[in-house]
């Protein structure tokens, strides 16, 4: 489905903002600077994003949504589910490496945004709901290859959370100082899953 004009403009603003935040950090990226980079007026910018902090959070939400949508497209393929899980791990690790500088800035400057955001409780609720949704989708996808005794004891959400948590650990490894060994990360995650919850 084709995007609306507003959606295209939002994406354009977010792309420019991501580059600016990555280069200058949260503190030194003003709404004036973003508007100037986008070649739009500041009031027009505020029509799309109510504040710098909301724009900042939207960028991280977009990052998560992009991984989720690409993962869903892998999940519908007619292939062995173990292979698809490996592809989801590859996709996630590749995307983290691609956005590494942006994500490192987000982790570094996150505390500034939290103090400035008007309703941080609402933001936390949104992130928790997103985490739950991702876990449910992963659990539903994996249920056919989960050990029966695991299915009897744990919910699909908890099962999906196992993979989600392992991917989060790989995320933190990927944004710290040295570039991690991608293949070793994937091998470790698959070994933990196979020895723990998967058949």
Quick recap:
Helices cover 79% and strands 0% of the residues. The protein is mostly helical.
Q: Can you walk through the features of this model?
A:
The chain is elongated. The protein is built from ten helices and no strands. The mean pLDDT is 91. Helix 4 runs parallel beside helix 7. It is an all-alpha fold and 199 residues long. It folds into two domains: 49 residues, Homeodomain-like (Arc Repressor Mutant, subunit A, Orthogonal Bundle), CATH 1.10.10.60; 145 residues, Orthogonal Bundle (Tetracycline Repressor, domain 2).
CATH homologous superfamily caption of the largest domain? Tetracycline Repressor, domain 2
Average pLDDT works out at 91
Per CATH, the class of the largest domain reads Mainly Alpha
Query: In DSSP terms, counting alpha (H) and pi (I) runs of 4 or more, how many helices?
Result: 10
**What letter string, H or E per element, gives the SSE order?**
HHHHHHHHHH
The total tally of domains equals 2
- Measured by DSSP, the beta-strand proportion falls in under 5%
Q: Unreliable runs, pLDDT <50, ≥5 residues? A: none
The helical percent reads over 70%
The description of the largest β-sheet is: none
Topology of this structure?
Layout: H1 5-24, H2 31-38, H3 42-48, H4 52-75, H5 81-98, H6 100-116, H7 120-142, H8 148-153, H9 156-175, H10 182-196
Helix pairs in contact: 1-2, 1-4, 1-6, 4-5, 4-6, 4-7, 5-9, 5-10, 7-9
